Sequence to fold (288 residues):
Amino acid sequence: METFIFRLAGRLPLPFLHALGVVLGWLTYLISARYRRTLHANLATAGMPSSRLAWATAAEAGKGAMELPFLWLRSHDQVVATVRGVEGWERVEQAWAQGRGILLLTPHLGCFEISAQYIGDRIPLTGLYRPPKKAWLAPLMERGRTAGRVKMASADLAGVRVLLKALRKHESIGILPDQVPGKGEGVWVDFFGRPAYTMTLAARMSEAPGVTTVMMYGKRLPRGRGYVIRFFEPDVPIEGSTEQRALAINRCVEALIRREPAQYLWSYNRYKRPAGAEPPPEAARREA
Fold:
């Protein structure tokens, strides 16, 4: 039944799905106290304690959920046609022309699904893949995320080797650097002024020889009119040790979020401590 409903939703136009998403997002905000607490706590940590922004964020999160049937089930050409504008693509083109590997970093900001499909329509892209919790979604996700020249790498050691191989072939790879990693796969560094367990994978990929790092996100346009994809040079140099690079990437992610704060997934528990991971430095000092 879930698959049938998802496929049925994929036949609906994007403006209608986004409108439904707004309603879904607002209902979730009203009904779930836990959702509201996490959202407001994260906004406050980032220095953006605004009820109006909270409502806007909930609406955008709903759009993000409801746009997936369209993005995963429509033809690749139909999906790419929703891109109404692109800014900064010349940064990627220049790196590609120079034969460099390209590390594309996009947080949970706007629509990262459309960014991948747009890039894969032009150059080879390998993205990190983590199976969905609901098994029935897996084949639908795989279909949608392997359109064009997009390939997926599993979020494990074998997948890391696939990413490195793609970089050595001077192709592009895509990572969501604000995804909380598992035990032993991250370091505690600041994110909006609070320690967050941050993946080291993106930092280590940036250390590979001949790699150009590009920040990006796909902005949703109002009333389901499509998307604008934006590419940026890192706001701060991504250099030094792995920990220093992880912190620099967080700074770059913060800069992107400040551009479109309503479209960031503030309800994501970015500050959680993964099972078995060491506590953040401040907590460790209190426990000593």
Notes: The chain has a mean pLDDT of 92. Strands lie at 83-87, 101-105, 125-129, 150-154, 172-175, 186-191, 194-199, 211-220, 227-232. DSSP finds 13 helices and nine strands in the chain.
